[in-house]
Predict the 3D structure of the following.
Amino acid sequence: MKPLAAVGRAALALLAVIGRVALFAASSLSHLVRPPFYFREFGHALLTIGWFSLPVVGLTTLFTGGALALQIYSGGSRFNAEAVVPSIVAIGMVRELGPVLTGLMVAGRVAAAIAAEIGTMRVTEQIDALATLSTNPMKYLTVPRVLAATLALPVLAAVGDAIGIMGGYLVGVTRLDFNAAAYMTNTIDFLETGDVVSGLVKAAVFGFIVALMGCYHGMNSGRGARGVGRATTNAVVSASILILASNYLLTELFFSA
Amino acid sequence: MIEVRGLFKRFGANEVLRGVDVTVPKGQSLVVIGGSGTGKSILLKCILGLERPDAGTIRVAGEDARRSDREAYLARFGMLFQGGALFDSMPVWQNVAFRLMRGRGRLKRAEARSVAVDKLRRVGLGPEVADLYPAELSGGMQKRVGLARAIAAEPDIIFFDEPTTGLDPIMAGVINDLIREIVVEMGATAVTITHDMSSVRAIADRVAMLHAGKVRWEGPVDEVDSAPDPYLRQFVEGSADGPIPAVR
């Protein structure tokens, strides 16, 4: 019976975590629509999450776009389909790689930073201090970050899409001898509004997940350096897994029909 | 002013508070002493509403802590945290003026800064400190800034959690004197947690000793040295021999 009990305990623990995260998400959403609003903190979060993530997102998508063009060209040449490179790079970047890579890179950069910052505030009693100064830590720390990440990620993903397509274009034109004008025409002709919108919606969901995981693990950080370190790791790992899982669910939702 | 009755609080199997009864009249300074892990900080956190007690009542100025408007309730309090708990992302003056710039009746930025500089001066820090960040300050200066933040909104009640921990004896004496002066000057009700008997003698009107989750002894500060209670005697004398186990 011992193995069964262990499985049961693990299942109950997992359900308890899911419940706590769901309550945390509900609480942050409910605070989102109730004053007071901390515009200065929101602006700062927008700058940190959005603007300062641009280089990492840009570089990641640039190289991925280039590699994608090479892969599609190499694979497509097996059945004389080299010409699909521009359209597949565009659709692949906009629907899938742009938002997912943006989400994962921001998860690594931002979820870790949020969890470390809030976790340190937790262990140094700064969060208790906030509460004694009549400031709700949920409103002051979580809401601005969650809102900023939810709004910033679609913009980052859009920039990432453009840079990724440009990476494919550069490789296509310089290495694979595509005609520059034909490459651009193919890219534009094959992209539909739905492709772009679905990618941006995905990115918004990923942004929500990244900030939520950072804040949740930071707020529930254990004591000491070890506790903060574990919170940081858990934030990145859980955000990355949830991004990939929700990406599948959203893809089912948008494209299964 | 503060009336705590039958307060219970447990964390899992660990029953930290087992029926604490404490009364602090208006304008009086109570110092709570006791060994590590006896629930002193939890008592303060329960009064502030940072921890939810399992049982018991807390009344502040006759008002039930659980039923009062949270913002108005907390506006009565100022707190100096053990490690200062200064917000390291903002300069000193914004730390001090944090409450003044938020909530009901908030001040304009320039006005709040002027009050913050004034409070910093009150705790012995010059205006040049206002624009520094907490990480640029020594431990003693951080305590002073924490004290300035605690008194910035002129609260009726001030809590001090281990105000002299980590400070050298001279700086500890300076902080003790400052706390006493400010509490008397403001006519505030004060509750201090400490292990430091020099703080007890400098700050307290009355002393309560927590042991095993209950108030073991309570009385005026003058009686601390002559009280026959063996637990209090052991604590005051800092002896390993006595009813309180040295290894806990």
Remarks:
- Residues 85-123 of chain A form the longest helix (39 residues).
